[in-house]
Amino acid sequence: MIRVAVLPIGPIPPSLFRDYASMLFLHHKIDLSTISSFYTEHQKSPFAHQPWDSNGSLRFKFIVGGSPPSPWEDFQSNRKTLAVIGICHCPSSPDLGLVAEQFAVACKGYSSSLVQRCFAFAPGDSQLEDYKRKEGNLILFPPADRQTQEFHLLTMMQDIAASLLMEFEKWVLQAESGGTILKTPLDSQASLSSEEVIKAKKRRLGRAQKTIGDYCLLAGSPVDANAHYSTALELARLTGDYFWYAGALEGSVCALLVDRMGQKDPVLEEEVKFRYDSVILHYRKSFIQDNAQRVSPVSFELEATLKLARFLCRRELAKEVAELLTAAADGAKSLIDASDRLILYVEVARLFGTLGHHRKAAFFSRQVAQLYLQQESRLAAISAMQVLAMTTKAYRVQSRASIAKSSLPNEIGSTQADGGKMHHHSIVSLFESQWSTIQMVVLREILLSAVRAGDPLAAWSAAARLLRSYYPLITPAGQNGLEGALANSAEKLPSGTRCADPALPFVRLHSFPLHPSQMDIVKRNPDREDWWAGSAPSGPFIYTPFSKGEPNNSNKHELIWVVGEPVQVLVELANPCGFNLMVDSIYLSVHSGNFDAFPISVNLPPNSSKVITLSGIPTKVGPMAIPGCLVHCFGVITEHLFRDVDNLLLGAAQGLVISDPFRCCGSVKLKNVVVPNISVVPPLPLLVSHVVGGDGALILYEGEIRDVLITLANAGTVSVEQAHISLSGKNQDSVLSFACEALKDALPLKPGAEVTVPITLKAWQLGLVDADSASKSLFGSTGRQAKDLSSPMLVIHYSGSLVSSGEAITDEPAVPPGRRLVVPLNICVLQGLSFVKARLLSMEIPAHVGENPPKLQNVENGSSEDARSPNSSENKTDSLVRIDPYRGSWGLRFLELELSNPTDVVFEISVSVQLEKPSVEDSSCGDRDTAEFGYPKTRIDRDYTARVLIPLEHFKLPILDGSFFVKDSQIGPTTSRSSSFSEKNAKAELNASIKNLISRIKVRWQSGRNSSGELNIKDAIQAALQTSVMDVLLPDPLTFGFRLAENYNRRAKLSPNKDFHNEVHSPVSKGSVLAHDMTPMEVLVRNNTKEMIRMSLSITCRDVAGENCIESNKATVLWAGVLNSVSVEVPPLREIKHSFSLYFLVPGEYTLLAAAEIDDANDLLRARARSNSPDEPIFCRGPPFHVRVIAHV
Amino acid sequence: MASTACFMIVSRNDIPIYEAEVGAAVKKEDAAQQHQFILHAALDIVQDLAWTTSAMFLKAIDRFNDLVVSVYVTAVIHTRLMLLHDSRNDDGIKSFFQEVHELYIKILLNPLYLPGSRITSSHFDTKVRALARKYL
């Protein structure tokens, strides 16, 4: 290679100079065939075998800026600078004369140069004029485009090549004829003896031959060169000139290779190896002890070694090459000059790199860097930094930036796909080659060199990597130092600088908060009416056993975000170092560009971790990926990927990484959170609910019924097209009704519109535990507990229009999802009235004998009509308790409810009985409408207990039937069991009738103005009635009644009622008989059974004292007719009439009693009478009837 | 006893799982780092050589300055015991390697030891240092 110095002449901008030089460098090889036109043969060429036609060429080695002459120029001609090219930029140096002068001066330094040219680019017109007058080495390139200029340059280079060739010829001819003196620094300076003078002459010939060979090679004629080298070898061997022998041998190898260029031949390779071994050997031989201090051929030996290594450098020969390189590296010790050693190491590193031994290459690169660092200059530091940067790959401490360039998509992809399911080996491979010690050293050296080189970004990056990866191995003082380095570097960086390597806070994904239940998004199934069904887990459970099977299936984790609605992501930050970490801002990093993230700033104390909420707003529809966070910390913006930390934690869990940054900060171990697939959907409607009258918990007493209004407003930007309300949660039955129609009617609900939905609630009963918790939560700080535990929830599914609004980016028209709004009905139930006990009381009030007993069938009809007729106040009171004068007054029963009021408000109780006549097979009782009887309100003060009486008189059935008897046999323990068939049936019927009875009793309460409710005491009533239900329900077999005979002139109406004594004071005409008057009376006996009853009827009359006033010796009543043992037969369901007359002697109160002994009583009657033995006579006694006898007026 | 010796066990994944400076010379941090660098670089040579020979003991496969690297490659899971030394006591080194190999196998037999992870047993450390004193 012909050395050409390229020098800038005159002032020239560096970039332009580089530009011009690069144009020049294109022409480093000039084919001989192209320069023939410039070549003029002055005399016979010494290069007899110049390959003009074939592939012969001249090669140039451009040395920009030139180089000082080497002392070894004579030994190897390629070390001579044979040509000088000046580059001049005309606009900046207008005076061409001056340029020419400067160039001439510059050329003086290159004494061995044979050709000098100065290229001047971009000359002005005046300069062109000027140039025409001048002659010399100055060549002007007229301004043109680059291609043209390159062409011009090529021409010029060909000219230079031709000139050089001619100069070579000249030199060789001269050397052949006259000889020349060639010296190397090796040659002893001492005066030579005569013998040595002769030897030196011979040597001189050999050396001349070798140099001629060199020139032949330079001229591109290897065959000529080989011939000359052979001669030189002979001569050098004869004279023992080992150094030149080795040089000639090396030259001959070069000639051989140039000649056989492009051929790969094992024989050739062997030859080259053999010759080079000999070269190395002879260089070593030429080592002369006496001048070893000054000069040494050892560098030639090493150079030869490296050349051989480079020649052999192939994978198959790795072992040989490695040995050569190791030997060369060993030679470094004997090199005096540090820069020689540096070059040696560079070359060794490069060859190892080519060989594929990256670790070796890195090792020597680091040696190089250390040598650079020993030079205290900025440029050396930059070089050191760059060299170290090359080693980072082998030591696995690369900057993220360089990885990104050489991107490893496979690795990244697989890690992501695997998620947490990587098995052990792949985890290990993640942490391959973790030589932490040397990695730290390398990073520290990079940091040091970067600081020295004044590259703040590199320094920052190195410090960041060091701190992040090796903080457990760095002392707190060292950590502080690194923090300082980061801060210092950041000061020198422009603000907003990004760095690929994240520094401190370790950021990991904590969780994605689910949509609050008010904004839940539900996939829509367009095919179904209930489009929300089966799309989302319903109910309050976060965990469902069905989702357990595939916990890591990333398809399962899908999040839907809505354009324009803020979202939140929880991340955890950790600062495991011993200094306070100030994160200027941190926000989610989203590459898909459809997200506005809101930055926040965090302060992390030493050794701490923190969970923070990062939020943002999706802006565009489409999939979204959140690989990590952007962090602005230590003055630089870095991206922290979640995946890196996940891998780190995985490694820590396996004991492969030194420390888990989160655990050493005291954070709890967290399950690996997989970043879900997030998709952003177009805007959806958003309903916001709000309870009219405050969103707080409603406080209701047990059983209270209240209407609640819930306002639903559409806060979204899309109108609601479909909506559906359902219930979920506990105590659903406490919602009596909700007006789904109100919402449906309001559809489509435009953005901003509101609709009010009324809901009727009824508070449920508190259990024992409930009562405790309810009272606790009431007096505790929040009502949340009660709300969460037992309140029902209103679930509203709603959605926008079915067709998406056109801007959907997916090909298939995806159905926009719907939403679910869960409105918890916060009900706090307080204990209200509590039921203490229920009892059945019986009361006996005698009936009054009147003259106008209505027909039995009509009694109830009449009474109900009475109840409806509002003609008198008495009638009203009558309606409260109705005692059938012919049947009921005797065994009147009351249900007594004892209620206590533990609360601090007053309750008013009103009892109502719904009267409903059950239709029986006997058509005599027609169907009747239900009628309700209200009783006066009872007031129960706070902390008091009160009793409420409920008469149960109207529930008696009209017929004593066999079927009832069977029922009886179920309950009554004494009766024998009857046929099995009817039993169940009958029992069910009885139960039904009991239930019917109970359900007709309603106990309502009211407290204050607006709370009212109903007591749920059915069970208690049933318990109370259970034992005596038979008595309540079943009529006696016979009903007795008295009345005044038709012909009695005064009509009196029987008015048996509770306020009987008030009745006494009512007008006489109402129902009394006169003393001393024959009063015809009738006793009515009704058979309530379906069979004929024969009996003997007896009638007695008693006075107030209870004495029998008919038969005793002091009888005050005279009678006519039969009173005792009247044998009568009563047909089924009919009544008979037995007439008699009484004559009262003394006014006053009398009681008439009828009794009957039933003959041949059947089982039914026996059972009803609860008689044990079949022989026992069955007595049937009627209720007492009062007769008021007044004195004659 | 050699003046400088650095012993390392490198797992199949090229992770150092055990390292010990067993030389008699005064320990300097710089030197220790340099030793690791040399051993790390020597892995390239081991990688080539290990497959060319059936021997487990590869003596003096690499050198830098006056430090020599000898390696013992275990057969089963390709763990490499690497010694950087400046002595030429081949027999001693071989015996050392063999004994350490036995110790390493005992570590492997520990069910709680995850192959490929760091050896933290202090017992192992003590034994290795004793062997180094004995043979090197």
Summarize the structure.
The complex is a heterodimer of chains A (1193) and B (136). By secondary structure, chain A is α+β, with helices and mostly antiparallel strands.
Describe the structure.
The complex is a heterodimer of chains A (1193) and B (136). Chain A is an alpha+beta fold and 1193 residues long. Chain A has 32 helices and 47 strands. In chain A, strands 20, 22, 24, 25, 32, 33, 34, 36 and 37 form a 9-stranded antiparallel β-sheet that branches. In chain A, strands 30, 39, 41, 43, 45, 46 and 47 form a 7-stranded mixed β-sheet that branches. The radius of gyration of chain A is 60 Å and the shape is rod-shaped. The termini of chain A are far apart. Chain B has a 5-stranded antiparallel β-sheet, with helices on both faces. Chain B is of the alpha+beta class and 136 residues long. Chain B has a single domain, classed as Beta-Lactamase (2-Layer Sandwich). The chains are: A alpha+beta (1193), B alpha+beta (136). Chains A and B meet through α11, α13, α17 and α18 of A and α1 and β3 of B.
